[in-house]
Amino acid sequence: MTDAIKLISGTSHPALAAEIAQHLGLPLCETEIHRFGNENILFQCKENVRESDVFVIQTSCPPVSDLLIELLIIIDALKHASARRITAVLPYLPYARSDKKDRPRISITARLVADLLETAGAHRVLTMNLHSPQVQGFFRIPVDQLNATPIVCDHLRATTNLGESVLVASDVGEAKDLGEYANRLKLPLAIIDKRRRDDSENPVAVGLIGDVRDRDALIIDDEIASGGTMIEAARFLRANGARRIEAAAVHPVLSGRAVERLRDSPIERLIVTNSIPLRPGVPRDQVEVISVAHLFADAIRAIHSGDSISKLFS
Question: 273 near 291, Cβ under 8 Å?
């Protein structure tokens, strides 16, 4: 039993969990997750996990806080069932964007989530493309951060004529991360100077560093949430002479009116991963989903055997 991998899926993204299990050639553990009328959650693992290496797969998607509590309950149950090691597999980390105290009397909730996971009984965390790299420092347990950039770049090379393309960072803060895409795809960069004046999620583009006129523009970001930043960038690029506009984001949060905004935007194609299940109504002729299940499966295998994770980034 000490060498056994056990895979457990929460209710956030069962399709991704099943795909990860398929790549590993392992079944998901049989479990019961029940929600009572008072909204309390019951979790029971129907299989023995004593002295096993357990991986709990749960991403962050609506209802975010409900699924976070479900994750903590699952981890706590496994800890008291004598699992030897528990790894929280979080393709999109809950509250990852709450990573700084930028106004008085607020919580740095990403740090709180790190404390909650450790208190519940997680021994390590496996996640992907954090909104800010410093979030890893909030944890006192090991955190492996996977990188979807190679997968996205491979898909772009296979499906797009990049000969006259330019990569675009939708704001100055994203420009540093865009450098890896530029190096892999051998493409020039442009940066949009964007200002957000309040919490209305309506950023305003005020300037452009670089040239996009008569070129295909490819906007890259780590996630698309409300869509305000990316769509405003697309409109600004069109006004500055961009010919064709595509976009790529690792995490398709697509909150609020994002789906409606996307349909009416100049973005002809949006490439995302399946780190989060797509919301209903997403235009599938406009949005392409690439799977990261094999990346997580390889990382789980490496963690279990004690191999290097960094080799997966090549």
Answer: yes
